[in-house]
């Protein structure tokens, strides 16, 4: 090695060593700060297993479940007809009234998935709901949801013109979301 390269390598090793030693010292804080953090950690709970029975724990858990259920808002059966509503409104459960277009129903999951893919290629927000009808699986394809029924009707006319699919407008129910097919 030539002299300049040796000096550079030696300098780099010395600077790296100093950084490894000094940076932790500078960034670590002082002893008082570390002690304050340690003092903020609570003591672990002490449970004497001889004083606790399985029945007591089960009873406490059931009591906690009942208290939690009591705090939940109760669902109201909403039989209001929102067919004429076109603006943003909330139903009796404070859920926005929304609408979707049901375009098709399939017994074959792949057909429903294929139609959803075609709709998404044309930039339509679409989803599939899985259900059971007459003891058979049914996959319904929807576009939406939208709050404005009028805008959704225009979208339905656009889909009918471009894809030759005529759908019907139905109320979107957020409670059906667990039945949605992912993807």
Strand content: 15-25%
The count of β-strands is 4
Integer-rounded radius of gyration: 32 Å
Distance between the termini: 61 Å
How do the helices and strands follow one another from N- to C-terminus?
A: HHHEHEEHE
What's the average pLDDT?
A: 84
**Quaternary assembly:** single chain
The helical percent reads 40-55%
Topology:
Elements lengths: L2 H25 L3 H10 L13 H18 L26 E9 L2 H13 L4 E8 L2 E11 L2 H15 L4 E5 L11
Antiparallel strand pairs: 1-3, 1-4, 2-3
Would you summarize the structure shown here?
Helix content is 44%, strand content 18%. It has 183 residues and is α+β, with helices and mostly antiparallel strands.
3D architecture notes:
The chain is α+β, with helices and mostly antiparallel strands and 183 residues long. Strand 2 and strand 3 (136-146) form a beta hairpin. The protein is built from 5 helices and 4 strands, in the order H-H-H-E-H-E-E-H-E.
Descriptive labels:
single chain; 183 residues; 4-stranded antiparallel β-sheet
